[in-house]
Amino acid sequence: MEAARDAAAADIPRLVELANQLRDELRVMRGGELWEVRESRVQPLADAFAALLARPDVVVLAGTIDDVVVGYGTLEIEVLTDGRRLGVIGDLFTEPDARDVGVGEAMAVELVARAVAAGCSGVDAFALPGHRQAKNFFERSGFTARALLMHKPLPEREP
Question: Which CATH homologous superfamily contains domain 2-140?
Fold first, then answer.
């Protein structure tokens, strides 16, 4: 049965494996190369996850099938300039073989519930422009685009 539970320190090695799979998957997509060096979790990933687990304003979930971790999700609570809170889903990943069975949905529902419990006025999530599966997943979960990030690559300059 699919479920979402709080990740623990003992899950860190598996979270690192999954984060590396996420990185490999997104790197080759449109926008993925820049995402990897700007938005992805910093290395070493084990330290990054340990730091996230220690923060009171962060939720790290493990998505499971029959208690086997096949995905993970993160939610960070940001305080906006007007004092409202915004939940930001930084990562939401399920192994390809475990998709379309409800693990991602279980994590998304739990992350949104945690944002509600934290008093957030909304939740943001990220999808690369070419990742139709992620976009469709978030739309099915009730998310809509609120902004488009535009980018223009420039020629590299010689030093």
Answer: Gcn5-related N-acetyltransferase (GNAT) (3.40.630.30)
